[in-house]
Design a protein that fits this description.
Shape: rod-shaped
Largest sheet: none
Radius of gyration: 42 Å
Order of helices and strands: HHHHHHHHHHHH
Distance between the termini: 33 Å
Strand content: under 5%
Helix content: over 70%
Length: 293
């Protein structure tokens, strides 16, 4: 665009010498009053910035400059659709960054979801244990059912009904012990902090490469290809944002926010599956049409 502007300016500057002002000897009022047709035509005919009416066209350079200017102004701009040369990012190396990252993010998403369910399990185990403890009979100060049963059976007067209740509660006590151990093991592995850290990393890397994919496509092809793969990726980023937006309310104990958070992430994993199935044909096409690096 700039070179056309320069050529046009040069052509006009070259032809500027050919512009001759009408003769001042015959003023405008005099010509109009006299209606001198010949004088009027003579004065108008002197306006010839490109010397096109002169028999003695001053030079071949002026003619070439005028033609070049006209061609430059009339020629439509050419479009460089694919943009600049992106180097390695236009080749196979850059094209494979997106599928490799998103395959990794799919596995990472499943791992993060499992950590989230472990944290939820750890958090809800306390309520489950408390409910089971309420079903136990009074242990009369004993630390366990076994100890309470031993005391009851060794008493001078054995309360058969009480002994029967203690024996019936033995499986419940075993269940409580198992749940307590599970809760302790979960707490020692720290799923809450791991889930939070992985979720933040997933949202960052996943969003970055969800944007990198279309940019790489545009760098190679000069356009995007709307379809299921692109739509699934856009929806996935929206679901990640929704899940992250629920965290402050979840930290305040809002169960509705927890439900939305879990639902968004489960739906996100579903979109990941859709992305993989719709992205494999694209990956094969990219491998076919690109070269290393």
């Amino acid at each position: 665009m700039m070179y056309r502007f320069i050529v046009a300016v040069a052509a006009l500057a070259t032809g500027a010498n050919s512009f001759t002002m009408p003769s001042s000897s015959a003023s405008t009022s005099t010509r109009l009053a006299a209606l001198d047709k010949d004088a009027f035509e003579s004065s108008v005919g002197t306006f010839d910035p490109l010397n096109l009416a002169e028999d003695n066209f001053s030079s071949a350079n002026n003619r070439a400059a005028a033609i070049a200017a006209a061609a430059a102004l009339m020629t439509p701009l050419s479009a460089n659709a694919a943009g600049p040369d992106w180097g390695v990012f236009e080749g196979r190396t850059g094209s494979l960054l997106h599928p490799i990252a998103m395959f990794s993010m799919a596995a990472f998403s499943v791992s993060t979801g499992l950590l989230g369910f472990q944290w939820r399990r750890q958090r809800t185990l306390g309520d489950e244990i408390s409910s089971l403890k309420k079903t136990l009979p009074d242990l009369a100060g004993a630390s366990s059912i076994a100890q309470a049963l031993q005391i009851a059976e060794s008493a001078e007067t054995v309360d058969s009904a009480y002994v029967a209740k203690l024996k019936a509660a033995i499986p419940v006590e075993s269940q409580i012990n198992e749940l307590s151990k599970e809760r302790k093991d979960l707490a020692s592995s720290g799923p809450r902090d791991k889930h939070f850290s992985q979720g933040a990393l997933l949202a960052f890397i996943g969003t970055a490469f969800a944007i990198e994919g279309p940019l790489n496509t545009y760098a190679r092809a000069g356009k995007l290809f709307p379809g299921p793969h692109l739509y699934a990726g856009a929806g996935l980023v929206v679901l990640w944002a929704l899940a992250a937006a629920m965290v402050p309310a979840m930290q305040k104990g809002n169960d509705a926010a927890r439900t939305v958070h879990i639902g968004a992430n489960v739906a996100g994993i579903g979109l990941f599956v859709w992305q993989i199935t719709s992205g494999i044909p694209i990956l094969l096409k990219v491998v076919e049409l690109t070269k290393w690096p």
